[in-house]
Amino acid sequence: MSLDLTSVIGFLITWILVLASMASGGNFGAYVDVPSIMITLGGAIGATIISNPSDRLKAVGGSFKSVFFSKQIDLVGMVQMIVSFAEKARREGLLALEGDVAELDNVFLKKSIQLVVDGTDPELVRAILDTEIGVFEDRHSANKSMFDTLAEFGPSFGMIGTLIGLIAMLGNLQDVSALGPGMAVALITTMYGSMLANMFAIPCSKKLAARSAQEVKGMELMVEGILAIQAGENPRIVEEKLKVFLPPKMRLAFEQEDKG
Questions:
Q1: I need a labelling partner for 60 at 20 to 30 A (CA). Which of 17, 90, 115, 237 fits?
Q2: What is the DSSP string of 101-129?
Q3: What is the pTM of this model?
Q4: Domain residue ranges in the chain
């Protein structure tokens, strides 16, 4: 696991610039209202807890950690490894790969090779691995939905807080001097709700979605490579198939390294 600087820098830029803009007016305290915070944060978090089962709630800490820490997927290294397996299988047969299984750290790749070595039918291998990928995506989607729910409820409870403030303000219309401050306090909850959604929950959700897509691409690469090996395809053909999964710049660098 390594620190994802894009997440850190993005959050710092967002929060520092917004908070600095608020403070530039000379009265940062005008943006702080404890009851409004309680309504917006407490309401949104409480509604999110109600909306999700306990197993998702327990996983929220790990999901939030995944926003800032990631395990880099070395697609080029993955292609090179699978091509080397293809070369070995072509020379010595599929059973020769059994010795490499124990040395692999990637559980999905290890399972894929073991299925092939065990002589499982290719269609069944693809079905099993596709199901594995589907379950993986569902699990990540469930974790992401926690932040989607929080992003949905944040502005809603901000509006509830605004309505509460407006009702209190309208109930005290005889004091004209209190209308301005009362309106300001009423609007603060809407601001808090928007900040919760747009400066925290939505960015976290989108980062988790991007993280999941990267991992799924790596898994799909493994599936295509292992099935090509099982079919006895030429290692060069296997390489060409897998290079499709590489981004253009990475593919160009891989080809130049291959030629070298």
A1: 17
A2: HTT---HHHHHHHHHHHTT--HHHHHHHH
A3: 0.85
A4: 2-76+121-259
